[in-house]
Amino acid sequence: MKEDCIKSGYSTKEPVQKRSKETRRKILAAAKELFAEIGFERTTASLIAKQAGVSIGGLYARFNNKLEIFLTILKEYAEKTCIFFRENIDWLPEQEKDLAKAIDTLVRGLYYTHRLEGKLNFEIEKFIMMNEDAKKIYDHWQRREDEGIIRYLNYFFQEKVEDPESTAIVIHRATHGVFSYMYQNKDSIDEEKLLSHFSAMIKKYLLF
Amino acid sequence: MKEDCIKSGYSTKEPVQKRSKETRRKILAAAKELFAEIGFERTTASLIAKQAGVSIGGLYARFNNKLEIFLTILKEYAEKTCIFFRENIDWLPEQEKDLAKAIDTLVRGLYYTHRLEGKLNFEIEKFIMMNEDAKKIYDHWQRREDEGIIRYLNYFFQEKVEDPESTAIVIHRATHGVFSYMYQNKDSIDEEKLLSHFSAMIKKYLLF
Amino acid sequence: MKEDCIKSGYSTKEPVQKRSKETRRKILAAAKELFAEIGFERTTASLIAKQAGVSIGGLYARFNNKLEIFLTILKEYAEKTCIFFRENIDWLPEQEKDLAKAIDTLVRGLYYTHRLEGKLNFEIEKFIMMNEDAKKIYDHWQRREDEGIIRYLNYFFQEKVEDPESTAIVIHRATHGVFSYMYQNKDSIDEEKLLSHFSAMIKKYLLF
Amino acid sequence: MKEDCIKSGYSTKEPVQKRSKETRRKILAAAKELFAEIGFERTTASLIAKQAGVSIGGLYARFNNKLEIFLTILKEYAEKTCIFFRENIDWLPEQEKDLAKAIDTLVRGLYYTHRLEGKLNFEIEKFIMMNEDAKKIYDHWQRREDEGIIRYLNYFFQEKVEDPESTAIVIHRATHGVFSYMYQNKDSIDEEKLLSHFSAMIKKYLLF
DNA sequence: GATGAATGAGTATTCATTCAT
DNA sequence: GATGAATGAATACTCATTCAT
Fold first, then answer.
1. Is the CB of C198 less than 8 angstroms away from the CB of D174?
2. Mean model confidence pLDDT for chain C
3. Cα C127 to Cα A165: distance, rounded to the nearest angstrom
């Protein structure tokens, strides 16, 4: 199982020098935090610049507009998440022969990852409904995550799962729904219990 | 199984005359459409007014501000959806003794309902992350939907489901995730196939 | 000394019936209170209507616009104040032969009158700077008050005051300045002491 | 007699660059003129911007809101006026040993100063009735002017004036009243004659 | 005549983006 | 290249006034 994630083309004012790259990074970090915290619309260019310790001019020298910043973050985030997801899945067979246990491990791992960026995840999911470019980028990486699941199903069940694609999508999206709820109510729920239940559902789905 | 949904109080400028009530309805309809289509932030007061065929002044005579319009829509929508959801569930036992078939019927029914207002659903889910009042209203009705599921589980399994609450939440939220995906990709997926798969997952979860 | 105050012409929608007159009175009373309390600009037509227990339509049936309401109040108030002022002055000679004591009595009387409508006085003085019509009405009655003072000076000093007009104006306007200050700081000053001082000043001015 | 006027702190967006300071000055000058001419409420942000030859954005980059502009002007104006007033008073003993002549000189000097900003004076006096912050700033400097008068009285009468505070207030406020009237009717009155009369009143008040 | 719903021009303020320094 | 001052279109909301019922 080798990595086959592909960089989806997206044109930005590409920086060359080191210092410039560093500045670019600071802008993206600040923007990511703000988009997650207060959303795209309420995040102003000057807020980003301030938080990044950059002048507005500096910001606009690096990115053509606010949308471009968002899309850049989205791309990087989706790619990183996808890679992480697939690494998790790809490593599973080597470490755990018991599917039930494997699912449990996977679910817990993914939840804690999701939890780290719960707000950003949500902002992104919102954004893709309003912006075609965002949707394309997002879908691209989601499909690659789906592929990871499919590959795992085929590997584990030796190609005997009928319609692994639909199975992958259902699992993947049910996960989103449950995790999203858990994140939003993290202060008032028993995370462990819900994870067990969710994990049980997936196990029954795949094993029976 | 009787209905126990309660109207949660929310104060708006209450219209008295017939004409006024009609105008109010037009405003809410226009706003609902716009919120769903382009989101809360991008929906301007004058857009709503224009779409509703009302002047801005007329709009503000009825609602104190944009937020109030959104919360009113949210309340009415959440209440309506909850009632519909619970009626579906409550009627199930009378019509269908086979749990597997019942789940199938239910899932399909709910999906087509969700589909009708997919975008609004999403905008609402986004909004509740940013606004405490919205979250309270939404959570109130979600919990009532959960209660409906719990009641059904207890009825069908004669109180033998251990932890029906968590079970209900997992089912409910997985449903949200899958339906949301299906809605967003309705043009490129095989809805029937995904519904079957999802329904299968729920059935296995509950029956094994 | 007979009364010679003249009604300055001002055209309003003149009500005829009793009920209508009563309504008109209620509107003016409400408006007067509001103009005094929050000023002309912040007093809205609907606030007046509400406070008067009248519909906006009813208000506009009686007055052409907000300005007209203000000018009507101004006219009535200035007239009433002028009449009161002149009655005070005209009665003085019959009651008090000692000028010093007469001034003292007068000053105190006027202050307590001014205090009753301190805010309205101020709003009016402001308004006449911005509106020619208002200035004309106000000046008309102020001049009549001046005349009252002049008449008194001539009566008391048997026409021997040189330039009684200027004297009257100086007294009149110094009074305005001092009373206005006293009203605005009524909570933190010793009214009695200031009145004595002011009265002393006028006495010295006239008697030496 | 040394100067002890203290700058009362008031926080605005403080400009750093030269260009910015110039712009700030232009805005304040334009606003001052407009507030004086048409009052606070009728002075719109865009009017100020236009008159100052600045964009609205530029205006709001320098001041948080219209009120802040007004308070800034008020502070600067009250301070400047106070300083001017006290310099006049403090210099008097060195130049004029005859109190009667000194008062005459002072009154005329103050009148011509007041005349320069008669309208602004009035707008300010109105505003302090509606706004606590404005009242505080204004009162602060008025009290310092009062102190100047008191100091002078004590100096000239070798501490023998009983209750110099009340005396100062009465003089100060009578002055306001008379000057305000004179300013408003400057076209139809004999300024010189009124000033003589007013000055005579003060002289008699203090010397007898 | 009375009512209050409807109108829409007007106001304060924000923010993405540009461009002189 | 970097800076942040300047721009002005856009937006939420108000209120004097009109007019259908």
1. yes
2. 87
3. 78
| Average pLDDT rounded to a whole number, residues C126-155 | 92
Tokens of A102: 């494997």
Give the one of C126, C175, C189 whose C-beta lies nearest to D177's C-beta: C175
Distance from CA of A69 to the nearest CA of B (A): 19
Cβ-count burial of A82 within 10 angstroms (0-12 exposed, 13-18 middle, 19+ buried)?
buried
Opening angle at CA A33, ends B131 and A109, nearest 5: 90
Burial D34-61 (b: 16+ CB within 10 A, else e): bbbbbbbeebeeeebbebbebeeebbeb
Is any atom of nucleic acid chain E found less than 7 Å from the CB of residue A42?
Answer: yes
Taking contacts as CB-CB distances below 8 angstroms, the residues of chain D near C208 are 204, 208
The pLDDT of B93-97, averaged and rounded, is: 81
Cβ of B17 near strand E (under 7 Å)? The reply is: yes
Q: Please tell me which residue lies nearest to nucleotide E16, judged from CA to C1'.
A: A45
Inter-CA distances, D151 with B20, D86, D208, Å: 68, 10, 19
pLDDT-derived band at D14, boundaries 50, 70, 90: low
Contact B208 A205 (CB under 8 A): no
Q: What angle do CA C66, D74, C114 make, to 5 degrees?
A: 50
How is residue D65 annotated by DSSP? Answer: S
The structural domains of chain A, ordered by start, are 1-63 (1.10.10.60), 70-207 (1.10.357.10)
How many other CB atoms are there within 10 angstroms of residue B14's CB atom?
Answer: 9
Q: Which of residues 82-111 of C touch strand F (CB under 7 A)?
A: none
Rounded CA separation A203/B12 (Å): 48
Q: How far apart are CA B204 and CA A55, in angstroms?
A: 57
* D/C touch flag: 3 or more CB pairs below 8 Å: yes
CA angle (D55, D57, D58) in 5-degree steps: 65
- Kindly report the backbone phi and psi dihedral angles of residue A33, in degrees, each rounded to the nearest multiple of 5, phi listed first: -60, -45
pTM (two decimals): 0.83
CA distance linking residue D165 with residue C194, whole number of Å: 10
**Full 3-state SS string of D120-157:** HHHHHHHHCCCCHHHHHHHHHHHHHHHHHHHHHHHHHC
CA dist C149 and C143 (Å) reads 10
Chain A residue nearest residue B131, CA to CA: A38
Binary contact (A194, B126; C-beta < 8 A):
no
> Which amino acid makes up residue A144?
R
Instruction: Quote the pLDDT of residue D18.
Output: 61
Å separating the CA of residue A78 from the C1' of nucleotide E20: 40
Residue B94 in tokens: 């009378």
CA distances from B82 to A123, A203, B111, B155 (A): 26, 30, 14, 19
